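Field log, afternoon session.

UNIT: design team B
ACTIVITY: writing a sequence onto a fixed backbone
BACKBONE:
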């Protein structure tokens, strides 16, 4: 019986650029820098405004734009008493019903 060999080739992955999200206008902080109480209160107000405001930025978007971690932004919003939005979008059934 003849032996067959398969040839493996590496596949090339191409990334598509995601559309740029609008800026929330938040200040960028130095990595691992501590905030004083006054700076933290001001930053908390800005983060709450970005999350609940007109643009309704996500926690991840706020974290990316400010250079802070997701956990820090989540904790900050939680301490400020923000009611978090539900995760994800509309269920598949709801989207189909809305289209009809």
């Amino acid at each position: 019986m003849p032996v067959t060999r398969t040839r493996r080739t590496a596949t090339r992955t191409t990334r598509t650029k995601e559309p740029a999200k609008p800026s929330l206008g938040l200040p960028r902080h130095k990595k691992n820098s501590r905030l004083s109480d006054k700076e933290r209160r001001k930053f908390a107000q800005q983060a709450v405004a970005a999350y609940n405001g007109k643009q309704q930025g996500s926690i991840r978007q706020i974290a990316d734009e400010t250079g802070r971690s997701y956990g820090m932004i989540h904790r900050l919003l939680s301490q400020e008493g923000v009611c978090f939005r539900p995760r994800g979008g509309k269920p598949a059934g709801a989207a189909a019903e809305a289209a009809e």
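LOG NOTE: Residues 89 and 95 are 9 Å apart (CA to CA).
NEXT ACTIVITY: expression trials, pending approval
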